[in-house]
Amino acid sequence: xxxxxxxxxxxxxxxxxxxxxxxxxxxxxxxxxxxxxxxxxxxxxxxxxxxxxxxxxxxxxxxxxxxxxxxxxxxxxxxxxxxxxxxxxxxxxxxxxxxxxxxxxxxxxxxxxxxxxxxxxxxxxxxxxxxxxxxxxxxxxxxxxxxxxxxxxxxxxxxxxxxxxxxxxxxxxxxxxxxxxxxxxxxxxxxxxxxxxxxxxxxxxxxxxxxxxxxxxxxxxxxxxxxxxxxxxxxxxxxxxxxxxxxxxxxxxxxxxxxxxxxxxxxxxxxxxxxxxxxxxxxxxxxxxxxxxxxxxxxxxxxxxxxxxxxxxxxxxxxxxxxxxxxxxxxxxxxxxxxxxxxxxxxxxxxxxxxxxxxxxxxxxxxxxxxxxxxxx
Length: 377
Known about the structure:
Blueprint: H1 6-19, H2 39-42, E1 64-66, H3 71-81, E2 90-93, E3 98-102, H4 115-126, E4 131-137, E5 144-147, E6 153-154, H5 160-172, E7 181-183, E8 205-207, H6 208-217, H7 221-231, H8 233-242, E9 262-263, H9 265-276, H10 288-298, E10 319-324, E11 327-334, E12 341-348, H11 353-376
Antiparallel strand pairs: 1-3, 2-3, 4-5, 4-12, 6-9, 7-8, 10-11, 11-12
């Protein structure tokens, strides 16, 4: 916590509290303890928590009387500083003879997963044809179902999703321009998915936006490697860190190594959650316009054989798939009648890719049907 002038206010308040002839302090109960406050008068450390501690050893609140002159100063200091503290909060009642007593620290209970979702997801996991990492979360109600979400797996083409978000973030800050056109080079030409590898590069230019659209729509590896070359691997990884990723990294170009780039279902789900619900946390994108443009690009993903397989053809589904020899992924925002669901399904050690793709399709179709049932209740 950065120290500011309010630190001096709370010091003065504490001094008034102890020096007041009208204050009473029950040393036996030790409900409210200021320790090492005098150290702050000599040196101001970077972490206030290390110098001032509040603790409670009794469940029954025992009031302490504070001199009335100290009330406004003490109250304003606590109001401004308590959001940054990590110790037990306490209540202050504004009366001429103020009562201060500790409150029991209560964590907000996490939203409960609906039993219908929990039971069906558990049954689907028991029937999975491969090793899976799954996250399903409801942005509106806040519940979250996770299975193997923290396990680091090979990202395959799902890595293109955070690359896309990183591009838009850098463009919003003015570090790059999505409209600037670039020539492709022969070293950008990459096998696998995509159509750019079949085109002659001479006299052809593409903007970063066009490359990004091809990267998602066709999962074009050539377009992706061109973006990595233009923007830079280090800059993209630096942006991943700013986005809060701890495991997701761009270690190399697409298909440049059999080890592939790492990610986790949890980090991809957090990214999608903040795209769907921009008020959920880290201000992933700075403008709502960029968020809508990014979601519109994700809706163009041409592979609808997984999460979107059993959904209506006319229903847009922002998502990104990923495939390797023994890896089948899909991650997206599933629109249902009961509200959108963020779904990430990463399958590894896949004996047959077709079976894994069908299992992910069952997952998407089941969640879509459950969403419709929720609206009927």
